[in-house]
Each structure stands twice: as structure tokens, then as C-alpha cells.
Amino acid sequence: MTDPTPRFWEIFFAVYEALPRQGPGSRACTARALGLCSGLPPDPAILDLGCGVGGQTLHLAELTAGSIVAIDSHAPSIARLTATLAERGLASRIQAIVGDMANPKQPPGSFDLVWSEGALYNIGIAKALRIGHDLLRPGGYLAFTDAVWRTENPPPAVRASFEDYPTMGRADDVIATIQASELELIDHFTLPDAAWWDDFYTPMEQRIDALHRTYAQDAEALAILEQMAEEPAMHRRSSQHYAYEFFVTRRP
Questions:
Q1: How many Cα atoms within 13 Å fall on the side-chain side of residue 153?
Q2: Cα separations (Å) of 248 from 11, 33, 185, 193?
Q3: How far is the C-alpha of 81 from the C-alpha of 64, rounded, in Å?
């Protein structure tokens, strides 16, 4: 595949930045994973890596009384999250920062909970586990989601759609990586199909439809929108081949 053009990224972000979240997940899944993190302080220090526009960040704020540092490399997403925090009166509890997950520049051992939904593949799970371990206090948790295969030989078109996940394996492969790290696995579970649709693919399809009207006379933009619409369409056809898995780990 050729590298995406600047015009592709323009349309891509016109779609994605308007969504409640930028990947599969839900408040219920966040709450379930958080429930596996027993023994957290009443007001935990939380780091959200790859926060996007903050869908899960806001859920963490609702579900805990903690303070949150939310980091993402895409400045417009952080700008949108910052505006949302101001609107909701959460700026005193949540600090939104433009930064690099691979080098978050936070003090070692300063967090009770490191969280990441659908983002750690960007730096690789093994490296993310090392970073999470070093950022956590003893007894703290790293909770994250990652895409995994559910079948041995997914169709070539399905495999190609995950080409941005070069090390994508099965849930057992992620578990083996965790077991080889300095963290211990607490539990894991598969996100239900509703977590793909309610706050992600359904709003995505609605946004794509709206932008079809905006770009009705722009053939290049319409072609990019059609390309993006293939993602939820493929999920309807082929979701039996892949899933998102939530993993909860702990620093001993």
C-alpha cells in the first residue's frame, strides 16, 4: 500500500476527530476492567496513554475519584479534549497533554493505574509493558486493549485491513508477552460487538454520511470516504476473525 496522502489524512481526521472515541470500547468495558483493579486508592493517580479525544478518559473520571494525565501525540485531539474538560468542569482533575506514548515524560513510579485503549500497538506490547511497569507504583495496574486474531487463517482482505498492526497475534500471544514481562496478568476478556458499534462504528457511519453531503462535488474526498466506509462494512462481514481483548496486569 502506498503511503496515505495529505488529503487522505485531512478527510480521515475530519471523520475520526468528530467521533466519541477512536476505537472499540465502551463505558461498560472500562468499568469491567476497572473492577479487576482491586485495592486501588480512593483517589488513584491515573495515566491514560493514547487518549485520543478522551472517550475512555471521561469514563475513568466518572468511575473514579482520581486525577488523570491524558497523553496523545495528535494535538487537535488534545485540543478537543481540553475544550471538553473545560465544558464539563473537569480541568482540575484531568490534564490533557500532547506527548509521546513511547516517552511520556512522567516521573517513574508515580501512578496507581496506567490505562490505554486501542493504542499500545503503536509502540509494541513488550515495550509498552516495560514503560507501564516503570511508571507504576508497586501494586499498581496497567490495563489495556489490543486487537487479536480469533481464527488461524483470516481471509487476505481481513488480514490486509490490519496491516498497521504488524505484530498482531492471538490473545495467547499477548498473554505470553505479559508472562515474560515484569507484570503479572490479573485477567482478560473480549470486548462485545456492541463495543465496536455504539460509540465507534455507528457514529463513524453517520459522520461519513454527513461528509458525503459536505463533499458532494469533490470526487477525491468521496473516494476517501468510500475507502473509510469499508472498515465498518468489513466488520459486519468478517468480525468472527478478530476481536479486541481487554488485559489487566499488575506490578507486583
A1: 0
A2: 34, 7, 6, 20
A3: 18
Q: How far apart are CA 149 and CA 153, in angstroms?
A: 9
Strands of the sheet containing 94-98, edge to edge, are: 94-98, 67-72, 45-49, 111-117, 136-149, 242-250, 184-190
Strands (DSSP E) along the chain, which ranges?
45-49, 67-72, 94-98, 111-117, 136-149, 184-190, 242-250
44 touches 64 (CB < 8 A): yes
Backbone angles phi, psi at 94, to 5 degrees: -125, 125
Per-position pLDDT tens, the chain of length 252? 467 899 999 999 999 999 999 999 999 999 999 999 999 999 999 999 999 999 999 999 999 999 999 999 999 999 999 999 999 999 999 999 999 999 999 999 999 999 999 999 999 999 999 999 999 999 999 999 999 999 999 999 999 999 888 889 999 999 999 999 999 999 999 999 999 999 999 999 999 999 999 999 999 999 999 999 999 999 999 999 999 999 999 999
C-alpha cell at 9: 489524512
Distances (CA, A) of 79 to 112, 177, 212: 26, 34, 25
Q: Quick one: cell of 57?
A: 478518559
Domains of the chain, first to last: 24-192+240-250 (3.40.50.150)
